[in-house]
Design brief:
Helix 10 links the parallel strand 10 and strand 11. The longest helix has 19 residues, at 412-430. The two termini are 35 Å apart. The protein is 38% helix and 18% strand. It is of the alpha/beta class and 431 residues long. It has an eleven-stranded mixed β-sheet. The chain has a three-stranded antiparallel β-sheet with strand order 2-3-4. It has a two-stranded antiparallel ribbon with strand order 1-5. It is globular and about 70 Å long.
């Protein structure tokens, strides 16, 4: 027997958090037990002699494993296996590249009045019919992106309703999700969508005094904070099984107002499907962010029994959806892509979807992305399985020069503490 390569221990005031990044096992032990672990000096048999109860607990939770268990090799294999898995098919649709807001940091080139045609909708349906026949999948994730996808609600519902009928015929599970600014969510929309139990990612840019200066209507310049909070509340009321991820975009301008957001989200929280993610505005230098304020906000949300993450741990064996073979972004104009974090330009296109529903990939581009491997330093890291993983788009652009995704100021201990609090909230919610 031996200690797992992926064991981590975080000393708190009176306890020690034990976290295994491979199995995602979590334990809380006393300081005396932890001292026994340290006294074993890496020898599991010595620990068994010193503290057999601790040994038994660690073994039962994968902190102690057999000598034959090569976790690193197994994990790297699972990464590659997941990348080429055909069980899940993920289609991201941009019904339009138009938007009703104009945020200063948005990287997309908005195209006024752009929209997907009925012929393009038909091509997507034909594609799914062909895909399920040639490469059957168990689950289809249908995501809507853009632009603001809800500017084209008719297209959204046309796709969902048609694909749902296909799911009943062909026996796959349909999951729907939306990345939306939330301003066009109304009672009728939620009622019509509720049977499909969609998930939503909705963004706030600080508290109202800052948000309304950033995320304002293109036409009249009015702020959107109150409207977005009302939409979040409406989804919880009328579609309680829908998950809502509230993404808080942060810069040094917004940090001082985070306490107000935490309180307001706690006030409107009606079920356990509301979660918060903190993300820096991409143009902002992370080194200049006051992360103490971010960590205080995360803890405040967790104290209010809302799961909240900043640079969160990941249970998955892959990083980005764009890493996967069984994933495609279909733009309103028929161009296809892998990544949604770059402009939907002809230069970034990976090919086209034909009117018959066939994907005509740029083979070299697709091959380059799918052949990407994790940087060598990542492969030997003892935190790798829980790490969100480096961005494959950035790997394509920078290769091994890409810096470690683990923030220098927000270290492994912070990840583990954040994970423990979120885990405890989740477990308490299940009771």
């Amino acid at each position: 027997m031996k200690y797992s390569l992926y064991n981590h221990f975080v000393e708190m005031e009176n306890i020690v958090l034990c976290f295994n990044a491979y199995s995602f096992s979590r334990l809380i032990i006393g300081k005396n037990a932890y001292q026994d672990y340290l006294n074993s000096k890496g020898n599991v048999e010595r620990l068994n002699a010193i503290n057999p109860k601790l040994y038994e607990t660690l073994e039962a939770n994968s902190f102690i494993i057999t000598d034959e268990n090569d976790e690193q090799k197994k994990y790297l294999f699972s990464v590659r296996e997941r990348k080429f898995s055909k069980d899940i098919y993920h289609i991201i649709v941009n019904p339009t590249m138009d938007c009703n807001l104009k945020c200063w940091y948005c990287y997309e080139s908005h195209i006024e009045k752009s929209h997907m045609t009925s012929e393009m909708v038909a091509a997507i349906i034909l594609h799914i019919k062909e895909k399920i026949t040639i490469e059957p999948f168990k689950k289809l994730i249908l995501s809507f992106f853009g632009g603001e996808p809800l500017l084209q609600k008719n297209i959204v519902f046309s796709l969902i309703e048609s694909i749902y009928e296909l799911s009943k015929t062909h026996g796959f599970y349909l999951a729907t999700s939306f990345t939306t600014n939330g301003t066009l969510i109304d009672k009728d929309f939620v009622a019509k969508l509720s049977p499909y139990e969609p998930s939503f990612q909705i963004t706030l840019d600080g508290w109202q005094n800052i948000h309304d200066k950033v995320r304002k209507y293109k036409v009249n310049g009015n702020g959107t904070y109150s409207q977005i909070l009302s939409a979040i509340k409406l989804i919880q009321q009328d579609s309680p099984k829908s998950e809502i991820l509230v993404r808080i975009n942060v810069s040094n301008r917004t940090l001082d107002s985070l306490t107000n957001i935490a309180n307001e989200l706690a006030e409107i929280k009606q079920n356990n499907n509301l979660k918060i993610m903190v993300s820096k505005v991409w143009q902002v230098n992370a080194e200049k962010l006051d992360e103490k304020k971010i960590l205080d906000f995360v803890l405040q949300c967790q104290t209010n029994k809302i799961q909240c993450s900043y640079l969160a741990t990941s249970k998955y064996t892959y990083g980005c959806y764009a890493d996967n073979y069984n994933q495609v972004v279909i733009n309103y104009d028929g161009n296809i892509y892998k990544c949604t974090a770059r402009t939907f330009s002809s230069e970034n296109s990976y090919g086209l979807i034909t009117s018959e529903g066939q994907l005509e990939w740029n083979g070299m581009k697709l091959q380059d992305r799918l052949n990407l491997e994790l940087p060598s330093r990542c492969q030997i890291c003892n935190f790798l399985p829980a790490c969100p993983k480096p961005c494959s788009q950035k790997l394509l652009e920078k290769g091994e020069k890409l810096p470690c995704i683990l923030n220098k100021k927000y270290g492994k201990e912070n990840y583990i503490i954040e994970d423990f609090y979120n885990f405890l909230i989740e477990r308490n919610n299940e009771k």
